[in-house]
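Holo prediction. Input below; ligand is NAP.
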Amino acid sequence: MNNVTVIGLGEMGSALADAFLGAGDQVKVWNRTAAKAAPLQVRGVALASNIEDALNASPIIVICVSSYEAAHEILADERAVAALNGRIVVQLTTGIPKQARALEAHITAAGGRYLDGAIAAWPRQIGTSEASILVSGATADFAEAQSALGHLGELTHMGEDIGSALMLFNAALSYLAGHWIGFSYGAVICEAGGLSVETFGDIVASFTPALADDMRHMARAISRDSYVRPESTLRTAGTDIGRLVELSRDLSIGPAWPSFAASTFQRAMDAGFGEDEHCAIAKTMRSH
Ligand code: NAP
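Structure of the complex:
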């Protein structure tokens, strides 16, 4: 059993508090809008009367609010600064690495310790092995917080550089952005072409094992900057993607996504990478 405080009771913060509670932890919560604690209070969670009370209640403070600006605002309160001394603050709000560094400076100046994390999961997955939580910060602090944080999902310690969890999270977000846009655009092609979007979903889902292999293969190629054994060349993929622009005209659907994709491949072909593997487009992305 751990004593844990959760600050922020939005969709994610409430799920975090709920998972701690379900694991038998003693949970104290604080939220700007206190009424959001009501469903948790019914289940035995204690509501802090103010931020100072929230910080004093537990050695481990988990914070998950809508932005780092909001987290700063909460923890810049004079009473909060005084109560941070000796606490391990685990920040699970999504942001970018420099925001983690700035908050770390604030917490450590107040005598606290700081771990920065990123949640790659939906709230409903929290408390299960489907929730992936990346954490960076001092190894000793991670070891101290690990048994409590382990109640939230699968933890990966990304190392001592406080920005590394968010760096990896943002890299994964880049992948997901393409996945979400590409899938939605494919669904719109099906709608406009009179095909079942659900069938499209089933067929694309069946690609998943091969896509996992492709990801590992691309990671090896890009990290070695070696793209010399293409099964399909960048030119072949680029030519096919170029035809998506023409299809968008035929179907009278928005051309922005295929135009962007086609121009990305065209730029790599213009740079002379047409006979390399498709992921050699990375070579055109490393600088402006
Ligand atoms: P949310 O439901 O919109 O909740 C936002 C929380 O932030 C609320 O507790 C809100 O308090 C608080 N807040 C906002 N501005 C504040 C301020 N100035 N001072 C004090 N509290 C403030 O958001 P969420 O879905 O829980 O997301 C929280 C974080 O988790 C985000 O960084 C998000 O990217 C990350 N995340 C979410 C998901 C997801 O699926 N939801 C998945 C992965 C990561 P009030 O209740 O008083 O408004």
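Strands lie at 3-7, 26-30, 46-47, 60-63, 88-91, 113-120, 132-136, 154-157. That is the main takeaway for now.
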